[in-house]
Structure formats: C-alpha cells, structure tokens
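INFO  loader      accepted 1 record
INFO  loader      residues=343
INFO  predictor   begin
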Amino acid sequence: MNNPLIRLFRSKIYTAFVLLFVLICIGIIGYRTISGLSWINAIYMTVITITTVGFGEVQPLGVPAKIFTIFLILASVVIVGYAISIITEYILSRNNFEDIKQRKMQKQIEAMSGHIIICGFGRNGKQAAKKLQDYGKPYVIIERDKDIIEKLQEDGVPYVFGNANEDETLIQAGIERASTLITALPSDADNLFVVLSARQINKDLCIISRASQETSYNKLKLAGANNVILPDKIGGDHMASLVVIPDLVEFIDNLGIVGERNINIEEIKVELLYDSTHIKTIKELDLRNKTGCTVIGFKDDKGEYIVNPEAETKLVSGSKIIVLGRPEQIERLNSKYNIEQEA
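INFO  predictor   done
INFO  writer      dumping tokens
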C-alpha cells in the first residue's frame, strides 16, 4: 500500500514491537541480576509479569525484585496497551481503506461508457489489455484471483473482483454500457456461460471469446459470440508460416505495436476524415500525399472487406479504411484529422 496513513500505522507498529522487545530484555536481565534466576526462570517471570496472567513466582522475591516487578508491570501495561491499540487501529483502517478504494474504483467504472470488458487476466487477457492500453482504449478487468487484483490495484487498472460467470459481476463492470467484451477464461465452459450471460444483458455488445477446443467454436458462435479465437491454432499456423514464408511473417509482425503509441496500422471511420455527405474517393482524399499513409484495406457500410482497394473506391458513410504507415505518419494522420480526440 502506498497510502500515507497506512505507512504511518506501520511505523507505529514497528515502534510498538521495538518497545515490547526492549521491555522483555529489561525484564529478563533484571530478574537474572537482581534475583539470580536462571535464564529460563527469568524469561518465565518476565512473560507472566508482562502478560499479567497471575501465575506463581518461581521463588520468593526480595524487596528489590518486588520493586522491579512493580515498575515492570506498570511499564508493560502502558506498552502492551499501546501496541494492542495500534495494531487494532491498523487492521480497522486497512479494511476501511480497502473499502474506500473499492468504492472509488466502482465510481470510476460507472463513469465509463463504450469501454471494453476483459474477463480473465491470464496470458491472453494480459496481451489483450496491453494492446488496448497502447491504443488508448478504456477497459475493465474482471478477475477472481486476489493476487492478480492486488497487482491491478498497484498499477491503477480498473477492475472488478469476482466471477465473470455471475450477472452481478458483469453489471458491476458496466456491461450495459460497454462496446465489447473479451472473455479469455481458461475453461471453454466458463467462456460459453459468460457469452450467454453477456448476450442476454446487452444485445448490441460485440463479444470476442477464447476457445481451447475446436469443438467449442460453433457452440460459442451459437451462444452469441461475434468472434471466436483459438490461440493454439493461431500459434501453430504462425510457427508453420515462419517456415514457409518467414520474411512475410516477420513483416506482418512488425505491423503490430512495438511500444507505447508506436502504431503502424490503423482502422479509421471515413466520417473522421471528411464530411461524408459529399462522397469522396480514396484518390480524392489523397492521404498518401497529405500524411504519407497508404490505404491498404476498405470495409464498406455492409461489412464487406476489400484488400488493396482501387483509387476510385467511394468512401461512403458508415465505411472504414485501413491505413498503413510508419508511426510518425500515423501520428501525422491522427493530428491532421484530430482523430485521437474524436475517436
């Protein structure tokens, strides 16, 4: 915890333990020197005196030993009482602080709209979150592993602690306002249940699901998933491609994000590029000369894709273009058309 209040309590706890240790050492040495007790008996007398349990003395005490015991009892009442109060206050304040953080996180999630929900923060979930973060897309993690939640807390990542299979957890993550849900749980059965629940709550939600078995593909699609990803199949295809067409695969890999805001390829709505009430063609838009970016793909308003579209392709309302360029060219495109602020 980085909270100053928690650090203050911890320093007080350390002080209390040091005082207790010093008190015990003084008691042991005092009984050893004043009454001539053995080490074991001196420890025994010190413990029963400090804890005030009322057991009998190991041997009759003289006047100096009795005076020493009186002061030891008075000191122990103060120090032990101080230690107990600090530890109790620390535990209560820690619980209250956790509740405050949870409520603050929930308010942050409730203010989000059009965000992405990621169910499961395993290998696939982490990669999805990293990609979304690099593109500046808001997202919420649903996770039930307490250790992972503590790490998300430290990193300031929006999260919901719970089981993604439960409708209440999905609602806490703002599924009714979300644009996309990525379910990357290790079990296909869990992913299927999440897809069914999510589709029932939000009919317009785009759902992307992970699947371990190819037999689960059709089931997840039938349950309402828009896309189903088979990581093992993709990994195998990728490794085989490195044998068959290694240079091409390496080039495609370099189209991905290398670092923060280091983007080589991007999908853009045509409405962000010009007033689509007066339809333009790719040639008339002239992005190559204006920004250095090249249009390599086109998705029309019906969802059909065209690879390497013709220059005379009309950029109608509701369509998108896919542009390729170096990071500085993509940045120039975003800056020229103010895309980052509007997207």
